[in-house]
Amino acid sequence: MPCFNLSTNVTLEGIDISSILKVATSAIANLIGKPEAHVMVMLKGSVPIAIGGIEDPAAYGEVVSIGGLNPDVSKKLSAAISTILEAKLSVPPTRFFLQFYDTLGSNFGWNRTIL
């Protein structure tokens, strides 16, 4: 179950959020090799973020997956998500950080048990 958690200082009012969620879900599923039905995407806007003390559009994200992550996949995910953020939220690639966590199923709770 890949999970993508994204925070940005961009205001999401007037933004087609559904489009961002769908495009990100598809990209993550395709690159990690998991079904779209298992991908969770969370988007938080208007989060105070400064990089170098500058509050221009910026974002921070985390991708957590039970398997499927390696340096090649992470590099492709970074490029794909950065492209989405630049197109949909005007966040330049130089103002976006993405952290990856490849974890065990025993670290995820779901449906009253662990995966």
TrEMBL record:
One family name in Pfam for this protein: MIF
GO cellular component: extracellular space
Highest taxon of the lineage: Eukaryota
GO molecular function, one term: phenylpyruvate tautomerase activity
Family per similarity comment: Belongs to the MIF family.
Protein's name according to its UniProt entry: Uncharacterized protein
Organism for this UniProt entry: Camellia sinensis (Tea plant)
